[in-house]
Amino acid sequence: MDIAQILANALVRAAELGLLAVGLTMVFDILKFTNFAHADYAILGAFLVYTFNCGAGLNLFLSVFLAAVAAGLIAVAIDKAIFKGFRKKGTKSVTAMITSLGIAIALRNIVRMIWTSESRTYAIPIQRPLRILGARITPVQIGILITSLVAMIGFHLLLQRTKFGKALRAISDNRVLASACAIDSEKMIQWMWFLATAFGVVGGTMIAMEHLLYPRLGFDILIPIFCAAILGGIGNPYGAMLGALVLALAENVILALDFGHILSFGGLFELGSIQIKTGYKPAISFVILVIVLLLRPTGILGRK
Amino acid sequence: MPLLEVNGVFSGYGDTEVLHGVSMYADVHETITIIGPNGAGKSTLLKTIMGYLIPSSGTIILQEEDVSGLAPDKKVKRGMAYVPQLEGIFPSLTIQENLEMGGYYIDSKHVREQIENAYSMFPVLREKRNKRGHTLSGGQRQMLAMGRALMTEPRLILLDEPSAGLAPSAADAVFHQIKGMHESRGTTIIIVEQDAQRSLSISDKGYVLATGQNEFDGAADQILSNEQIRKAYLGG
Lengths: 304, 236
Known about the structure:
heterodimer, A: mainly alpha, ABC transporter involved in vitamin B12 uptake, BtuC, B: four-stranded antiparallel β-sheet
């Protein structure tokens, strides 16, 4: 078992999932409903990146930036058209949740309509992996790690040091009191949608960059994102980051383990090599999700 | 000229009407207590004055301006402040951040001055400035809640059951602070309170509500000495 490689793979996976989980947890934290469309917003953005990058020939960073802004604005527009009305009427959060499921399906099919079901890749040349501390890691993966780290630190500073971030935390704590402080909750909620979606687009693009980009990708990554957010403690952005890391480690360790070796007590008797196939990777997060919900539904860090 | 006029207000939650034509007046520098049995609509009245509930009919006039339909954040900018019952602070924010949020819309230099004012009024908050709100005791929370509400130097402050859930000694301290706030700043204060005796004893005027309507009003000492009201609402 190559520990350095497992760690490297886990870190890259955590970097991708973390950005998506932070966005999901933010929406839950402020609006108290689970946004099933979160991953599909992200993949819509990832397709916009594809168009800007491969269609218009823009540089990848600029493409990601433009797509994050565009998808963020779409999320704000959908909030204004649908969820704002729910908030005014005091609609139950389960209604909002089911509505988000509908939005997810609609977005996925709009993406399919525009870009077809074909799998795509970004205009990144095939790269030779570098060897760092014994692990093979590509320059793209290094880029993913750095981008995610910078985004998370930026998000932390935004939450803790700026008036905007404090107001966002205040709204999450007590919206009634926030309006007694003259904080315009509606405006803050729109910014929250924008940020959560923009973060998601960056995360979604990274996942597509490492694998393939196709319309159903959002659905495929939904469970790992939920698992990361719930594992860390839903509603807690730091929990989402930690949850992503723990999940990524679990996935990579479990895939690397030789269960034949373990079950035969280190080769005491002949069992052969038993490894979980990579195809079962999604099942790992599903099983972890079920275990967490059974044993510690508040997650590792719990609510703030 | 009254600072606040509430004229025949009808209000409630959705289809459930709680206030059926309540009126009240608050002059500048007055302290007013609203009493009445549970379900009389006392908290609903405060929420309606503050704009969390919009009256279905009747008007709310603040210094000659009709503010009936204005949302709470707009009312804060016109000099009103509100301390909700029990949930007057942001538990996951530090004490300092709670006060900063109280001064959300005023400029940062002024915020620093006001935070200093709050700390000198409530020294215990200064000691705990970097602790999170949820670590405070009930009495300290109420002080933070009042300090937070005072950040904008309001002309009118609405307090919803400031002594709810507090030990008697903490409640004493809170009422002492309310009195001090009135004396030093001249803020007009409207209090809804279960402990009506104590609240009336620091008030100029009192209103008695019953089933969402005005039952009686008058000078605080007059209410305290009224045999019928004592029996009905002040526990003998």
